[in-house]
Amino acid sequence: MGIENLIKIDKKREEPLYMQIYIQIKDMVEKGIIKEGTKLPTIRRLSKLLGVNTVTVVNAYHMLEKKGIAYSIVGSGTYIGAVNYKFDLSGDVEPEIVDSISRPIGSRYINFASSNPSHELFPVREFKEIFAEVLDRDGGMAFTYQESMGYRPLRESLSRLLAKDGISTDPRKILIISGAQQGLDIISKVLVGQGDNILVERPTYTGAIAVFKSRNANIIDIPVTNEGIDIKRLEEILRKHNIKLFYLMPMFQNPTGVRYSDEIKSRIMKLSREYGFFIVEDDFVSDIYYDSRPTPIWDYSHADNVIFIKSFSKVFMPGLRLAFMVLPDMLLESIQAAKYSSDIATSGFFQRSLQLFLDKGLWDKHTEMLRHVYKARRDFMAECLNNIKNTGITFKIPDGGLNFWLTLPISLNDREIYEAALKEKVIVAPGSFFYLNNPEHNHLRLGFASTNEDEIEGGINIIRDILLALRNENYIQTEPLL
């Protein structure tokens, strides 16, 4: 039976026809139904058999090529097989991880490295209706430049969203940005100069480290404990150095998943006022909590020294690149100017769409659904990890966020495990990738944002076998000869 006879499309579905074709071919490749080197039906033949326009098939084939699943030869056709299958590890997965993963496709990879939501969880249907409503209401105005601070009705909606959590802020202090990474870049351009002392957590998001390095700053890291940062170490650093700002993630920290205690947050705020440094608080996943909603450091402050960044990427659709900052009065003018020089303004159409999404109550419904889905995945991964404790791993079950932080036996090396897992088509994030310097090599970050229960169980079993094999190998190598 030919490939074309296995593809079924439904013209009544909301999903575009070319995506239906792309997904079905991709699934058949991953399941081994279509082998590498197989020639796909000609565009004309497949369009005729499926009763669709040739452009539909062209778009499906282009998507296969873009994702590295197929390649075309001029005058010959389109074939399955890619020497550079790129995984979508955008978002907060470090570039080093992304760049190191380039493998042939043949079967499905289990991706524990990504913290982006599964695409099937995107609110596509709701946003399709929202997009149509924005266009009907605003017409061409939806595509004009907004003021550089952002679409005013959206800023008002975000102020109300924060107020529901007991956080009061004036909409005029809210700046809409094109993703949290842009926020960090803008802040650095305004506040960070050559040689300035910048504090970060250890380990931390290396995208922030890259931004501070680009400003030739002196970066100092502070260890993260189970309650938050090491306060004694912070006090020692503050006595020795003049600190410009402290970048931190107190609500389900990346990569450890630690939730800062109220005592630690309160102490950090007191020290920031005493020593006069800015706090840059990055909230990238606080909406994914499984116990009680965490409160930001910002909530503890009446001082004008906290910059709060909130991203929608991990609970929304990452490709929209929407986030916002709440700014101190003293920085409003300078940061607004830096935003303008960066990209003038964030997409007006997407801003207007998000505003409607919030005002219709769809955000609350969506995040509630995500918490339910991700809590089930977290619980299942915890069960699977508990079943392999004989490998020597230790971990704490996170009460929010999208990943586990594993501590390995000291004899094991995270990069060895990473390479061994990759050979078995399992992708993990080595803990050493998240350190400024002198990395610890006995940690792994395992995410469950992009995996289902079957993948979680299968992937954890593969990791178990790798850990046991490496432990036995190390034991044999180190056992003294008699």
Question: How would you concisely characterize the structure shown here?
Answer:
The protein is an alpha/beta fold.
Task: Note down, in words, how this protein is organized.
With 482 residues, the protein is α/β, with parallel strands linked by helices. It has three domains: 3-80, Winged helix-like DNA-binding domain superfamily/Winged helix DNA-binding domain (Arc Repressor Mutant, subunit A); 97-122 and 365-478, Alpha-Beta Complex (Aspartate Aminotransferase, domain 1), CATH 3.90.1150.10; 124-361, Aspartate Aminotransferase, domain 2, CATH 3.40.640.10. 41% of the residues lie in helices and 14% in strands. It has helices at residues 17-30, 43-50, 54-66, 95-100, 124-138, 152-163, 180-191, 206-214, 231-240, 262-275, 332-343, 348-359, 362-386, 414-423, 453-478, and strands spanning 70-73, 77-80, 110-111, 174-177, 197-202, 218-225, 228-229, 243-248, 278-283, 306-311, 323-326, 403-407, 426-427, 429-430, 443-447. It has an eight-stranded mixed sheet with strand order 4-11-10-9-8-5-6-7, with helices on both faces. It has a three-stranded antiparallel sheet with strand order 12-15-14, with helices on one face. The longest helix is centred in the last third of the chain and has 26 residues, at 453-478. Keywords: Aminotransferase, DNA-binding, Pyridoxal phosphate, Transcription, Transcription regulation, Transferase. GO terms for molecular function: DNA binding; DNA-binding transcription factor activity; pyridoxal phosphate binding; transaminase activity. In the C-terminal section; belongs to the class-I pyridoxal-phosphate-dependent aminotransferase family.
